[in-house]
Specification:
Blueprint lengths: L4 E4 L21 H11 L3 E5 H4 L8 H18 L2 E6 L18 H20 L4 E5 L4 E2 L7 H18 L4 E5 L8 E2 L4 H9 L7 E6 H6 L4 H10 L3 E6 L18 H14 L7 E4 L14 H19 L2 H10 L2 H13 L4
Parallel strand pairs: 1-2, 1-10, 2-3, 4-6, 6-8, 8-9, 9-10
Antiparallel strand pairs: 5-7
The structure holds D-xylulose and manganese (II) ion.
Length: about 350
Amino acid sequence: MSDYRFSFGPWNIHEGADPFGPTVRPTVEFAKKLSVYKQLGFEGVQFHDDDAVPEVDSKSPEQIAKDAKAMKKMLDDAGLVAEFTAPRLWEDPRGVDGGFTSNNADVRKWAIDRTKRCIDIARMLGVKFVVLWLAREGTYIREAKNAIDAHKHLLDALNALLAHDKEIEIAIEPKPNEPMDHAYIPTIGHALHIGSRTTDPKRMGGLIETAHAILAGLDPSDEMAFALEAGKLWSVHLNDQNGLKYDQDKSFGAANLRMAYNQVRVLELSGYPKTGRFVGLDVKAMRTQKADVATKHLSNSRRIFLALVEKVRTFDKQIEKQFLDARDYEGLEMAVLAHLMGIKP
Ligand code: XUL
Ligand code: MN
């Protein structure tokens, strides 16, 4: 039994479409996805608003409440809990230029209203936590928006959401690009700063995804440490990324095991399990993976995470101290690599 709690989103069991080709696996219906969580060792479900309540935009408040209640029952029956909900603004035609930072005031209002519904759904699923991945809140060309105004609009939106529900906590998931050329909140520093400028900074935090930090040219474990020091790492999306490419969402540790070790190390150093917060795995199966084995990316990622927890916990603290005191970082590095590889230092 691990002291970590694991989660993923239903989008992590997927059909394998990419920008240059169609789907390669059949759609797995939602109830079927829920049934594999426990088998794979996961207890938390990360929801987009419309994963929980399909076609949320066209439904009355009564219908939304009815659907959310039914979803809560499905979770209870499966012995699962919701971790958070996240508004999926980026797939609606209105959000083509972003929602909160659109130049169009009607679109900005729609984005805020829809996110209020997303908050309501979170509460009905029994959580006080939403995540904003600010997908299209940026530009393809800098001249398309006044970026100063865009940040003001974003701040206004956050304040409106905090006012809508006095208990909700909001974590921003930064990402520097994709689908935009540049996004406005590229790093955890940006996310936490804008949170600190809201009317209730203590209800603003962050979710850090490995691949997003790498795409920003940063070390994910240092991004995590920055948030952890401030008590603001409220979830993670662990995965892996082979350098500066498209957003790959590879299995955790699959591209850079040492970097994965250091993410686990920083979580361990902070006592993350004691917070009760989840370790989310935002991983995608390879496009070529056959349907009947297209959940291995999830179980493998969890297994690698747990193996790395063991590696962190069993690294010889005396040896670490000796090398640090001697300022012998070559020695320390070899000790770490030997430990990871299971060879003599
Ligand atoms: C996008 C991303 C999303 C969010 C969920 O890159 O990571 O999966 O995490 O909205
Ligand atoms: Mn993510």
